[in-house]
């Protein structure tokens, strides 16, 4: 509970509550998973309106510091993972760089005929054989992203289910392929029923949808990936330089 609120301060009361809770979270006094007092408890303890408390809590939820769980209360959220978009790395490599333990759960593995949209993305003929892999990406035993990967079968003829659980980039490079670059498209949207189920979210929760097209060093398309990242766990940062 916040120790003191100055009702004579020029700072709005909701802002004081917000700043105090943020400071407690950032200092470690409040840990991820901790339950914070209810709006009613805050309001009664400081003799303020619940609407004022609700505004402060809502701001912190929107900023990713807190998370509401229906029927349970409001909890301190897990710290966001900051992804620096400055190089082509695999999920496993990125998590290890951040000091997290990566893992994957293979939800489905099949070889299918490429429909027109995906064939065009991969620069192959419609109906050509491609791998379709659905994987749940996990860090420190927490589900973070659900992805569907499409790769031309001719590029990685040895790609089996055991390999699909591990790093595809490591396997591709061990197979003699040289990865070159990737282009990504980002979109904020609501989680689908499937995404919510696997990521532990409600259907109305926000996710960051990312489409990635990865190329070999020869500029031949290598993979097309559609991913849904938990919006409450990820922050993407991009470094840019002004063109001269």
From TrEMBL:
Residue span, HTH gntR-type domain: 11-79
Keywords: DNA-binding, Transcription, Transcription regulation
UniProt cross-references to CDD domains, sorted A to Z: WHTH_GntR
UniProt-listed SUPFAM superfamilies: Chorismate lyase-like, Winged helix' DNA-binding domain
Keyword DNA-binding: yes
Signal peptide stretch: none
Keyword Transcription: yes
Pfam families: GntR, UTRA
Alphabetized PROSITE patterns for the sequence: HTH_GNTR
Domain of life: Bacteria
Gene3D superfamilies, A to Z: Chorismate lyase-like (3.40.1410.10), Winged helix-like DNA-binding domain superfamily/Winged helix DNA-binding domain (1.10.10.10)
Name recorded for this polypeptide: Phosphonate metabolism transcriptional regulator PhnF
Species this chain originates from: Exiguobacterium antarcticum
Phylogenetic placement of the source organism: Bacteria, Bacillati, Bacillota, Bacilli, Bacillales
Encoding gene (name): phnF
């Amino acid at each position: 509970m916040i120790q003191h609120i100055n009702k004579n301060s020029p700072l709005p009361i909701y802002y004081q509550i917000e700043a105090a809770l943020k400071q407690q979270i950032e200092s470690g006094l409040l840990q991820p998973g901790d339950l914070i007092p209810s709006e009613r408890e805050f309001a009664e303890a400081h003799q303020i309106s619940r609407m004022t408390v609700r505004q402060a809590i809502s701001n912190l939820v929107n900023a990713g510091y807190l998370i509401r769980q229906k029927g349970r209360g409001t909890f301190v959220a897990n710290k966001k993972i900051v992804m620096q978009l400055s190089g082509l790395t695999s999920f496993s490599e990125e998590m290890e760089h951040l000091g997290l333990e990566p893992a994957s759960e293979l939800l489905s593995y099949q070889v299918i005929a490429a429909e027109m949209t995906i064939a065009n993305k991969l620069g192959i003929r419609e109906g050509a054989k491609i791998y379709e892999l659905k994987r749940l990406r996990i860090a420190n035993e927490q589900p973070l992203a659900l992805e569907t990967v499409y790769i031309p079968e001719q590029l990685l003829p040895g790609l089996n289910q055991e390999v699909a659980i591990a790093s595809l980039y490591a396997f591709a490079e061990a197979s003699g392929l040289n990865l070159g670059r990737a282009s990504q498209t980002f979109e904020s949207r609501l989680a689908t029923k499937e995404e919510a189920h696997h990521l532990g979210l409600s259907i109305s929760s926000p996710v960051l949808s990312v489409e990635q097209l990865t190329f070999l060093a020869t500029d031949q398309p290598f993979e097309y990936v559609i991913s849904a990242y938990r919006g409450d766990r990820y922050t993407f940062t991009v470094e840019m330089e002004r063109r001269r």
